[in-house]
Amino acid sequence: MKILLAAVNAKYIHSNLAIYSLKAYADVEEVELAEYTINQQKDEILRDLYLRKPDVLCFSCYIWNMEYVETLVREIAKLCPHLPIWLGGPEVSYDAAAVLERLPAVKGVMKGEGEETFAQLCRIYQKDWNDWEEADCKLLKIDGITFRREPTQGDLDGAEEATEKIIENPWRPVMDLSCIPFVYKDMEKFRNKIIYYESSRGCPFSCSYCLSSVDKRLRFRDLELVKRELQFFIDQEVPQVKFVDRTFNCRHEHALAIWQYIKEHDRGITNFHFEIAADLLNEEELELLGNMRPGLVQLEIGIQSTNPDTICAIRRTMDFEKVKGVVERIKSGGNIHQHLDLIAGLPYEDIESFSRSFDEVYRLRPEQLQLGFLKVLKGSYMEEKQSDYGLVHKSDPPYEVLYTKWLSYEDVILLKGVEEMVEVYYNSGQFTDTLEALAEEFPSAFAMYEDLWHFYEMNGLLGVQHKRSSRYEILLSFIRKVLLEKVEIYRERLTYDYYLRENAKTRPSFAGEYPVEKEALRAFYESEEKEHRYLPAYTSYDRNQMRKMTHIEYFAEEDRYILFDYLERSPLDHRARTCEVSGLFLAKKTQRV
Q: Which residues form the B12-binding domain (predicted)?
């Protein structure tokens, strides 16, 4: 007997915590795991599933993989027509009967929390594999499933034909989160993967677009257990652990204890990611976060909109002024990466309202600004309100908004363009100095990204795989078009941004000829080899090594020499340490091109 749990992840670096938890809780030798990605060919996955020869096949289903799963289900059923196939996960839990109608090859759906349900299924298939009628009788007693019951002998007796029935069993009561085993005992299988961890399930809020609002049964893993497991990650020097708790700081004592523990036991390597509600942070938590090692934690904060009518309609409780104050305070500490989210397509938010939300959040200068689009999830309150909102979304996963009563499809197209520009230029972290100054030249930051997208569109630059250095060239061309009189100032800003991130030995063409004399460079590094005035961390390096690990640039507009030190990068954004070098050089006056 082989029961195969299969996951199709969004990327190779992702791992699927759900299937590892199901296997660990069931504690059955016959359970095997298979992880794939949506970037693989479906034929490749199909071949592997077939060659594994499972006796029972289970898929973990989400909005990003449902199309793949449905195709695989239909094709594997042709190759193995008697193979029992089960689905589970949020994408199938809230319309399980419709899923079975749509996919005749699927035996059943595990709804909601799956550990105990899967464990019971394993026991049934282990014992009654060859007696499908007895197995179906036992399935009737399992909470948390919807399944296809085959016609019994009684149904067939005296009847020309009998049809199968779809049985909706009750949802399962929630389980004790502390009973789920820790899945990360062998870290070798998670090498080069993001590690996901949960210390709570459920959410206290009722956001209409989120499935977590359906599950009000908030519960927490035992804190002493959590501490031991976090210590394991720290001891194993795991690069990053992402908490999947929906609102990590909804219970203050829980969040405070975990943050205090990782601060006290930090070894300078592991980063912990938390999704939080910023306006719930109290003074004690803010004080603790302010004293964290730079790079120890990063925070994801879902703002979604700053329009009060929108916030009310989506049933959020968010005080933006308080969020703003918290984000600014955390940013002033310079030690925590902040990721802020906006959602386009929410009720009462037209293009003008969304642009205001964008500008207000942009002014907070988070390390990442994610512009997402409303996804109308099955089972969510937003799905119920579609008619009221004039909300039309795509039929296929991820059910993304097409238009609403307030936002046209033309607006959505524009916002998609702005999203792409934000991702390329802002979220890459490669143009920080340039963008900060450039945004001041436009009526708003949103207007700047809108104009930049139109520039891409008009010049045939969309849909092209541009090299990193080409993005600088394109931005400079855009600046030349809209601010010709300031192009030299912005050329230098782009050069500064470029060398903040790139220890490049080949000079980019947009920067022009290198303006520092070779003799001046030689004299500087000879001096540093003896004195280490500007490079105190380089005492074990000679002049040639120092020259390879640093860069010096002259900026004529400010008449300054800047040293870029790539040995001492920021743990938050990996930018080089910089310092001004004074009185040592004469600039080589060259014609800029």
A: 1-132
Amino acid letter, 120: Q
- Whole-angstrom CA distances from 142 to 91, 136, 164, 177, 383 are 20, 10, 18, 20, 28
Closest CA to 544 of 525, 523, 561, 562: 525
- Using alpha carbons, list the distances in angstroms from residue 289 to 137, 267, 574: 54, 17, 20
Give the pLDDT confidence score for residue 211 in this predicted structure: 73
The enclosing H or E element of 308 equals: helix 308-313
Cα 177–chain centre separation: 24
Query: Cα–Cα distance between 403 and 15 in angstroms, integer?
Result: 33
Can you read off the two tokens belonging to residue 206? Answer: 């009722």
Greater confidence (344 vs 130) lies with 344
Q: Which residues share a beta bridge with 243?
A: 197
Report the distance separating Cα 80 and Cα 84, nearest Å.
9
Instruction: Report the pLDDT value the prediction gives residue 586, as an integer from 0 to 100.
Output: 44
Amino acid at 559: D
Give yes or no for a contact between 542 and 526, defined as CB atoms under 8 angstroms apart: no
Map tokens 């541009």 to a residue: 466
Beta-carbon contacts of residue 141 (< 8 Å; ≥ 6 apart): none
pLDDT single digits (tens) 351-404: 999 999 999 999 999 999 999 999 999 888 999 999 999 999 999 989 999 999
**pLDDT at residue 442 tops 90:** yes
Q: What is the DSSP letter of 106?
A: -
